[in-house]
Amino acid sequence: MIASHLLALIVFSTLVSVVFAMLLRERSQDRVRFALMTFGAFVLSAVVVGWLMYPFPN
Amino acid sequence: MERDRAIVDERRVGGAIPACLLALLVPGAGHFYLGRVTKGLAFLGAIGALFVLGVLMDAGLQMHLGFDDPLAFLRSLAQMALGVPYFVARALGFEAGKVTSVTYEYGNTFTEVGGLLNILVVLDAYDVAVGRKR
Question: Is there a contact between B125 and B20 (Cβ–Cβ < 8 Å)?
Fold first, then answer.
């Protein structure tokens, strides 16, 4: 279905960010901002951790 | 103001039980019951998508009851927290998943996280029902 790591990461981050934003913020504007920040944090941290692991393939 | 909102109206605790049960059965149903349609739709859409995509990515939905493999038991509990969709998918034959599939672990992660998020949604439904949250 989704065989790409990056696509799976983006879909997962989007869906989880939406739920977190709806749970943790009450105003629409705050929810959008929080969802975008959470999404960015998910994707960025995964990319950073991925690069940190790059020298250690095994 | 914040202090007032933190106080639980004990008369409303009884009314929270059906909301929590519905939320546990179907993601978002507790919020629909409480009249929070937007929240309910968001939870149903997002958690439902996590579950459906997880199953389509060959997730295993097998039950591991018992403590011989504690991590498998906890993962199984997380998936079961999705409620009715989990049991329907099992009944429809999506129980075993496909261990050899490239996306097997993705699928497991999607379905498990969906279940864990649904537990948070149940707690949110309780908070809304007792007046602690809007």
Answer: yes
As a whole number of angstroms, the distance between CA A20 and CA A2 comes to 23
Give ipTM to 2 decimals. 0.89
- What residue spans define the domains of chain A? 28-58
The 8 Å CB, 24+ separation contacts for A46-51 are A46/A9, A46/A13
Question: Measured between CB atoms, which of B39, B57, B106 is closest to A22?
Answer: B39
Radius of gyration of chain A (CA): 14
B31 within 8 A of B128, measured Cβ to Cβ: yes
Tell me the per-residue pLDDT of B31-75, one tens digit each, with 9 for 90 and over: 999 999 999 999 999 999 999 999 999 898 888 887 888 898 999
User: What is the reported pTM?
Assistant: 0.89
Looking at CA atoms only, how far is residue A50 from chain B in angstroms?
Answer: 16
Determine whether the interchain pair A2/B57 forms a contact, defined as Cβ–Cβ distance below 8 Å: yes
Residue B21 C-alpha, separation from nearest chain A C-alpha, in angstroms: 18
The answer to whether residue A4 neighbours chain B at the CB level (below 8 Å) is no
Tokens coding B91: 């009944």
CB B75 within 8 A of CB B64: yes
